[in-house]
Amino acid sequence: MKILLDTHILLWAAAGELSAKAAGYIENPENTLLFSPASIWEIVIKRGLARVDFAVDPTLLYSGLIGAGYVELPITGKHTLLVGALPPLHKDPFDRILIAQAASEGVVLLTADKAVSQYPGSIIFIS
Q1: pLDDT of 58-100, one tens digit each?
Q2: Structural domain count of the chain
Q3: CA 1/CA 30 separation, integer angstroms
Q4: Which residues are bridge partners to 33 per DSSP?
Q5: Considering the entire predicted model, what is its pTM?
Q6: What is the DSSP secondary-structure string of 39-89?
Q7: What is the C-alpha separation between 110 and 9, in angstroms, rounded?
Q8: CATH at 118
């Protein structure tokens, strides 16, 4: 299964703080793990705002993800157009592009955000 990880799941994976359920998806060798440049961008911005929960070095995180075999899912115009068609359940632009990417590419979005899990499509909520 191809799984796009939301930003918090990426941060928790980098910190070794995954729940057992999340670890089950991430450690399953049959799954292809994807990340979005939107997550790296979100980390850069929120780290710049001195948010404690975004203290990870985004350059190291990016290198670590690539080194661990994660696949970067580029953002396309098709993805950005789909954002406009999403229902207004959640206003966070970073989450909305992740939802659009997952829907557009037919992959599962693994999220820790309850609001994101309310969108239609292949979204798995973990806590």
Answers
A1: 999 999 999 999 999 999 999 999 999 999 898 899 999 999 9
A2: 1
A3: 7
A4: 3
A5: 0.94
A6: HHHHHHHHHHTT-GGG-S-HHHHHHHHHHTT-EE----HHHHHHHTTS-TT
A7: 8
A8: 3.40.50.1010
